[in-house]
Design a protein that fits this description.
heterodimer; A: mainly beta; 11 strands; 0% helix; B: mainly beta
Chain lengths: 116, 117
């Protein structure tokens, strides 16, 4: 069982509100990721981090922002939520081997966000 | 092109059947091909993975077949069980690309598998 946690699991919020989705892992992994999962199932990478103070945008453009101040913590923030942000957000982490080869990505249970 | 195309979108088999899920990719730099399994309300979990130096990998009832020249790989589930009912995702990444691209997974569109008792 992977030790990666996401809170809240479900969130219903009104348009214009600021929200932060929390993600924490206790495995000491240096790489962390945020994915957006459409209702039609496909996962899209929106942010990733290779370590503290390192963040990059993913393949899918997102209005959200992330920070990586501590190894174990990778929160995602939406400054002003809109109905188009309604989706499932999945956090993942992985360890790195030398020469860039990675171990598997461990996923959290996800946060289902609904913006009304 | 980073796209990974997965088919079919959904699949229904009887218990004991052998569902096969296929994926095709275009980026020849991909060198790591995992399959993830996702149950409702859960995050995906790694099922099995293959690197392009082998054409087949088997773990229990799950087998990946890999065709490097065709840029295709597939998942076979032997003796499928109702407990295998889940969504399956193929993925690919450039593990040895270096820089900031390694470790990023590109996922297929997913296949909903239903195994009837």
């Amino acid at each position: 069982e992977a030790d990666i946690y996401q809170t809240p699991r479900y969130l219903v919020i009104g348009t214009g509100k600021k929200i932060t989705l929390e993600c924490s892992q206790t495995m000491g992994h240096d790489k962390m990721y945020w994915y957006q999962q459409d209702p039609g199932m496909e996962l899209h990478l929106i942010h990733y981090s290779y370590g503290v103070n390192s963040t990059e945008k993913g393949d899918l453009s997102s209005e959200s922002t992330v920070s990586r101040i501590r190894t174990e913590h990778f929160p995602l923030t939406l400054e002003s939520a809109r109905p188009s942000h309604t989706s499932q957000y999945l956090c993942a982490s992985s360890e790195s081997l030398d020469r860039g080869r990675s171990y598997e990505q461990y996923f959290g249970p996800g946060t289902r966000l609904t913006v009304t | 092109q980073q796209q990974v195309k997965q088919s079919p979108q959904s699949l229904i088999v009887q218990k004991g059947g052998i569902p096969i899920i296929n994926c095709a990719y275009e980026n020849t730099a991909f060198d790591y091909f995992p399959w993830y399994q996702q149950f409702p309300g859960k995050g995906p979990a790694l099922l099995i993975a293959i690197r392009p130096d082998v054409s087949e990998k088997k773990e229990g009832r799950f087998t990946i077949s890999f065709n490097k020249s065709a840029k295709q790989f597939s998942l076979h589930i032997m003796d499928s069980q109702p407990g295998d009912s889940a969504t399956y995702f193929c993925a690919a990444s450039e593990e040895n690309a270096g820089g900031t691209s390694y470790g990023k997974l590109t996922f297929g569109q997913g296949t909903i598998l239903t195994v009837h008792p």
